[in-house]
Fold these 2 entries.
Entry 1:
Amino acid sequence: MSETILRTAIRTVRPAPLSRPRLTPLLSGWRGLSRYLSPLLLVVLWQAACSAGLLSTRLVASPAQIIVTAWSLTRDGTLPVNLGVSLLRAASGLAIALTAGISLALISGLSRIGEDIVDAPLQIMRTLPVLALVPLFILWFGIGETPKILLVALGSTFPIYLNLHKGIRSIDPKLLEMARTLGLSHRQTIRDVILPGALPDLLTGVRFAVGISWLMLVVAEQVNADSGIGHMMMDAEDFLRTDIILVGLFVYGLLGLTSDQLVRTLEHVFLAWRPARREKGQPT
Amino acid sequence: MNAIPQSVPRQSDETRTQNAVTVQGLTRRFNGGPAVLDRLDLTIAPGEFVALLGRSGSGKSTLLRTLSGLDPVSEGHVSRPQDVAVVFQESRLLPWKRVWQNIILGQTGGNDGRARASAVLEEVGLGHRADAWPLTLSGGEAQRAALARALVREPAFLMLDEPFAALDALTRLKMQHLVAGLWTRHRCAVLLVTHDVDEALLLADRAVVLDSGRIRTDLPIPLDRPRRHADPRFEHLRSVLLESLGVHDD
Ligand SMILES: Nc1ncnc2c1ncn2[C@@H]1O[C@H](COP(=O)(O)OP(=O)(O)O)[C@@H](O)[C@H]1O
Ligand SMILES: [Mg+2]
């Protein structure tokens, strides 16, 4: 836990010295660290409360205990195996969502007829809470991998579809006009103007989708599963092992953080043409 | 290269020899409203530089859009060369393509695209920015790139819709010099929409004023180039033009 805090602290601090003048690296380094000071303090307080017996370990395990448990779960293979299962489910679901979301958005974004056919049903369906489909999915698909992957896929299709569709529809009409005066064909216009112009929105959609896919996974794995991080946590509940539950929680948290960072990296690579945005929290 | 839009009829052989652009009886209304262009006639000779003036909302852009093939011709007749290029007030560069890629966008030139882009960028004084992203260009640089993108197509007819209106005065002066030089070398027919009387007098062979849907003033500018504001004939033409625009210059 504290290890990851340090690592993220170092990661955010490093770019600063490059972009700022001489004397400031120390200062901005301190600012970067200071952001993590209060969480660190909370962890220390938490440990102190547990050690002093103020907090019952039946309710909350101590940070030290969590680290020990995480280590032993890693050593005996429980954590890696369950993590692998969860990752595979999330990745499969996301892959389906990407394929479906992008295809549907292209159909409805690039043709009026396509929009009439595709958009209305999707707009209606997106108002349904996807999680309410869990009982139905279990009835339809049983308790194997299918309902879990489909739940992830369904939940994360919507943000991808909605954002990409919006991106395609909101391309600057002046650029489309320019494409016409330059004599670009329909295909060229789609390839050079519409798709690159909608890419920022697509990536925003993907970021939402990734977040939602973890949420879907948590529910799917806790409702019924015999493997996965969620299952590991539900199993621990039976034995009052709050340490295992908290390990699962942190793993979910880390997965969320990492995947979000991954999409941000993609944005950085693919949207290099956008003017550099100011670093958050740095005054100019 | 590019197919001419259906709405613009192919030019006939007889007009090609006389005029680059011929507009006859062009009428344009929006949604059955009053006519923005009302039986408008205009001709531009090959290689002629015409400045189009008129108060805001008089239909200058509408005429340009029709000439460029963006808007259909419903009433009247328009003939113009097949190879045209337009530069608008905003550069309209694709932000996700580097400057040189923007220049040769839609060109079927084979492998030498980069070289041709570099050459024309050099010509507008933007050679050093060939690899830049468009959003990092200044307003003047972006308009230079837009000019380069128009020139690389070697148009027989170049349309400019208030291309320097958003630039500061100093940059605008530089751009006017640039356009004058480019036109001397390329000798295409030019229609420059401007609200700047001096700009028209500095650059054009002829200034026309659009008012109530028609060309009301057609003023030849028989001055030698390069032109100077201090020239008394320049002063005279200036007051004539201002007069026809409804501004009285005392
Ligand atoms: N797409 C449009 N729909 C309706 N009215 C339009 C449209 N485009 C232009 N107009 C009208 O036509 C008139 C001329 O516009 P425009 O050609 O842009 O003027 P200018 O370029 O001379 O300032 C204006 O009154 C404007 O409101
Ligand atoms: Mg206009």
Note: Chain B has two domains: 19-83+155-250, 94-154.
Entry 2:
Amino acid sequence: MNDATSQPETMTGAEILVNSLVQEGVDIVFGYPGGSVLHIYDAMFKQKQIRHILVRHEQAAVHAADGYARASGRTGVVLVTSGPGVTNTITGIATAYMDSIPLVIITGQVPTSLIGNDAFQEVDSVGISRPCVKHNFLVNDVKKLAETIKKAFYLAASGRPGPVLVDIPKDVTAHRSVFEYPGNIEIRSYKPILNGHPGQIRKAVDLLLSAKRPMIYTGGGVVLGNGSKELVELTKLFGYPITQTLMGLGSYPATDPQFMGMLGMHGTYEANMAMHECDVLLAIGARFDDRVTGDVKTFCPQAKIIHVDIDPSSISKNVRVDIPIVGTVDRVLQDMIKAVQESDRKPDVEALAAWWKQIEAWRATKCLRYDRKSPLIKPQFVIEKLYELTQGDAYITSDVGQHQMFVAQFYKFTKPRRWINSGGLGTMGFGMPSAMGVKLAFPNETVVCITGDASIQMCIQELSTCKQFDLPLKIVNLNNGYMGMVRQWQEMFYDKRYSHTYLEALPDFVKLTESYGHIGMLIEKPGDVENALREALALQNRLVFLDFKIDPSENVYPMVAAGKGQHEMILSPYQEERELA
Amino acid sequence: MRRHILSILLENEPGALSRVAGLFSARGYNIESLAVAPTQDPSMSRMTLVTWGSEEVIEQITKQLNKLVEVVKLIDLSEGSHIERELLLLKVKVATANQREEVKRLVDIFRGRIIDVGDATYTIELTGACDKMDAFLKAVEASLIIEVVRSGVSGIGRGQKSLYL
Ligand SMILES: Cc1ncc(C[n+]2csc(CCOP(=O)(O)OP(=O)(O)O)c2C)c(N)n1
């Protein structure tokens, strides 16, 4: 029946927002309410499709959404109020931006009539977030809301992913409009390149097949671009050594003989030496970060460099490359595999044998040696045990410091998206909230947060969130009583002047955890490490905080001091021979 | 280090300009001048940005600009033959007949125009390439200059070379 008076049904902006999120397949939103998002929270209350996880600090909401995104590959979603709600998210947004993680952050804003008046809880959210988002929007008309949300999700997840912020004034969430969610979206000024240039790919493969001392170096881009399968296939096809950045770990199995360990500041001796000596370097989804290159003037001095990346601005930014290839990592690697298979050239077997012999000689330095007989708990030992007990199959998040490097060195990741840490920004406080996001994405998997006594206190309040939402994380606190990584620099480069790195007033972490309603364990002897870990892992439905009192003097080796060349490593002073004698 | 003139088609949206400006300050790139206004298509602005730097820096600048979601298209005009123009508005003191004569003579030589005459001032309009403005400003007696207003360079490619959607 065509009733002349019948109008198309309208909704409020808040309802349009929630329905748009449903259209995007969002199942979880991490957030914290406040004045300017009251309409949105009311709409959230009335629906059942989206679960809202109430954090205890907005920074944690972003880290949790970030952990969710890194582990699942889906876009993480955050909802916060204006003013302090937004400023609290900035650390989280910058963290996600540096590691190219797809997030959509919805922020409330004061009503449009008050914008620019220094209104209560007004902050220029678009301005304050601009340098650390892929893009952002201020929605000043309810009619544009659905389309803007569509654009935000598209931008966040496509091309080089990243966080996108959508600022919505309160009145826009109250205004009514017809809800129409766009099916597809075109942005004329945004066209990511997907396929690598065939000529460049052919040139790259020719160069790789003519190499005498080849090296493959890959980064977070392979994880984010879901190119792990192709990477393994290509690396096996070549038979070349492969090293990975902190962000790349897991996208090639660390248990494989071709794997050389991580490279860079705390990379293995063999990986850094092989980088220094190689004649052809294939870099994939990596960005030649200063923690990887050391002094760029002495970086891979003999190598012709091939660089595969989704982001043209990553190419030749820090190090000039010879063959750039822009495209998605899975497609480019598929094309490379095909080109290798079709080529009449084969890798130079003789040269390769000599190269591997050299690599074995470097490996023989056993650069990750440490004192296994120490009466104190060694952090490396805890990670090794955790690796054994979880068979390398757990989701591991970390904070920032020595403990993070020990995980990277000693936990042998064999699958992508299992290793969740803040590489680019190096954000202390990331570990526990990101683990919450991982656990929510994979409720049946073991999720372990490895942290330090300083880092854990930056978002410790989230123990409360874990209680409310029943998130049985395992928290491994490698408690050295110091900001270990900073102390290490002070020991090595500031004559042991430990300026403000001793924490002295640490809480009793066991009691603290218990007061939040979880289980705490204190472990002080190496002989108790394995049992404690076993017990904690067996308590599948409880959050367990394991406080390991570790050797406070342990340092991370090898180390390339800031500004030094990649081949100039400081090696562990510990000698296994002495142990045997 | 060379001077480059980048011509940019930009979405005509609030915030687009600050994204460009923010990029330059955040990454420590130079801006010599920046001129921007809407085009025949009101949804797009055309920006001319003059910068300088090594080839590597200019390459990064163009890549970073292209990465901004609101940048539709971009060319480096200085890579080919092009025309650049700037508008100069200049107010000078002209107290004596001599001074009036001298200023008028210079304006004629540089093919400018006197567009306003006050009790003791002339306002001059001059267009041309950047170096012409510089030469003109040098030629005018410094003590006579009251105000200098320059628009910043606008540029366009010669012949077939065009920037459009
Ligand atoms: C938010 C933040 N502030 C400061 C730093 C600088 N920083 C890097 S590592 C570190 C010490 C971390 O100590 P802890 O969490 O105890 O870990 P450990 O190094 O002892 O394993 C500090 C202060 C940082 N990365 N992040």
Note: Chain A has a mean pLDDT of 96.
